[in-house]
Amino acid sequence: MKTLKTALTYLIILGVGALFVIPLMWMLTVSLSDPAKVAEPGLHLIPTQLKWDNYSNALTLMPFAKYAWNTIKVTILCVIGGLLSCSMVAYAFARLKAPGKNALFILMLSTIMLPGLVTMIPMFIIFKTLGWYDTLLPLIVPAWFGNAFYIFLMRQFFLTIPVGLEEAAKIDGCGPFRIFWQIMLPLSKPVLVTVAVFSFVAHWNDFLNPLIYLNSVDNRTLALGLATFTDVYGVDIVSLMAASTAVLLPVLVIFFLAQRYFVQGVVMTGIKG
Fold this sequence. Notes:
The protein is mostly helical. Helices cover 71% and strands 1% of the residues. It is built from 15 helices and 2 strands. It has a two-stranded antiparallel sheet. The relative contact order is 0.14.
């Protein structure tokens, strides 16, 4: 009975995994196939002939290097800004004492339920008034003011760190900022990596915000660049899948490199409330 239960569990896991793997396999297959073969009916998951020049063709159809540089700048600056702001706010909510702290925390969490579409027009008006339209600033600056979900994850992790470490540091003369910088952050590598991965994926794949705030070709990101393969005459599906595979690779590399800390950070954030 136990063996049957274990086998059934693995079958379910394999079935769910296939739901995610098959689209990726199809994307990779199309990116390496001849356009004439792609047009044939049916679901082809294994290419009959590998055409590696599809990638070189796709990356030359758009200024890939320029779009990649813009995306890298936005992503790295957003990750750095998010880690700094969210960690400081989370430490304050987790450790510092202040009147109304819990009410402010609940108010901050309530912003998660606010759809981004509600604030889209006011944010656009603000950035347009500041003269930031068609620049990368509207994509970077908001990340430096924190994210409610990331703050929640970090706060939950900070609560798992023994209070005795802070008390010992206070006896040695450390202030709140030194405790945060030299004690809390070095012990919080799992949650920092988790938030960094979440932030990296979100900003690397962001399409809506660049679509709203960017106009000139020189400022476009990779997500907008992929849209150039679609025009009034149809979709260049082979080039689109090849370029999409190239854009996906950094995300996969980042996730696999940070997988151990990522899983540990997600688990540890739910231990203490």
